[in-house]
Q: What sequence folds into this?
């Protein structure tokens, strides 16, 4: 699928299988999501441009690469997107964070905004939007709409599991925003849940059901 990368690394696939199992505890679920988030983040940031700076090792001067440009912004969609945040900040401690509060209206499955807080200069930065579940695609589309309204032009979407319906809808709405996911499952059910999926990611992370 154009613009969509399925990260098929065996470590990610193994951890995803553990995560999907209904017996997996809340604690294990959070830990696994954090670990998988770091591994996917590694792929999402694989092509970041670098520039050379002069440093001095104990032995000699050298030109060594560092990531070029302004710091990244990680933009978790609340609440499930928070699963990825700590691990990603461990990998990229200087990244800034934008919080995007959206909930899904259970009747219409439409996304409703309730919170948005981003760095002032977010428009100058590369923003990685995070949501483990790309189901209907409505939340991811709304989050990217909100960021584009603030002038952001460099965007990537990082998720864990996607439904074909969500991928099709998101890529049609935002063809210039590449997507990374660990798997594309079979379909959505009538309530907008991914099948076979893993259930409600937010509830499983926080033990709310
Ligand atoms: N959100 C979830 O947490 N799970 C799904 O299957 C779909 C959306």
A:
């Amino acid at each position: 699928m154009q613009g969509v990368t399925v990260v098929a690394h065996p470590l990610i696939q193994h951890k995803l299988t553990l995560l999907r199992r209904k017996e997996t505890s809340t604690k294990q679920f959070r830990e696994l999501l954090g670990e998988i988030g770091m591994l996917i983040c590694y792929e999402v940031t694989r092509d970041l441009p670098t520039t050379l700076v002069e440093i001095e090792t104990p032995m000699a001067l050298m030109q060594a690469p560092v990531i070029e440009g302004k710091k990244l912004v990680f933009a978790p969609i609340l609440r499930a997107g928070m699963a990825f945040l700590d691990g990603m900040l461990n990998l990229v401690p200087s990244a800034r964070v934008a919080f995007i509060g959206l909930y899904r209206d259970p009747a219409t499955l439409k996304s409703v905004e309730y919170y948005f807080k981003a760095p002032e200069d977010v428009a100058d930065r590369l923003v990685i939007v995070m949501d483990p579940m790309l189901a209907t695609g409505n939340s991811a589309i709304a989050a990217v709409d909100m960021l584009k309204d603030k002038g952001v032009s460099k965007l990537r979407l990082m998720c864990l599991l996607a439904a074909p319906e969500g991928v099709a809808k998101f890529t049609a709405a935002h063809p210039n925003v590449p997507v990374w996911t660990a798997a594309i499952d079979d379909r959505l059910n009538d309530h907008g849940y991914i099948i076979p999926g893993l259930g409600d990611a937010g509830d499983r992370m926080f033990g709310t059901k």
Q: What stands out?
A: The helical segments are 10-20, 26-44, 82-91, 138-149, 164-173, 201-206. The longest strand covers residues 50-56.
